[in-house]
Amino acid sequence: MNPDTILQFPMEKRAEMAFREAVEEVISEHLRLKLPIYVSRDGRVVELSPEEIHNLLASEGSPAHS
Fold first, then answer.
1. Interval 3-48: pLDDT, tens
2. What span, in angstroms and rounded, lies between the C-alpha atoms of 63 and 26?
3. How many domains does the chain divide into?
4. Does residue 55 sit within a domain?
């Protein structure tokens, strides 16, 4: 997206876009390095293996899936 276009969005929307991009980069890097990711599920911290992450992204059609 063009930087001039991004600046037309409210600050809250730009922050959300930046956060989503950062999370996508972290997920991609963890997949590349074959590292697990830890997430909160039902109030507990659980480990997602790279295979679980891959399968989850594939089922969602996420752009981080590569």
1. 788 889 999 999 999 999 999 999 999 999 999 999 999 999 999 9
2. 13
3. 1
4. yes
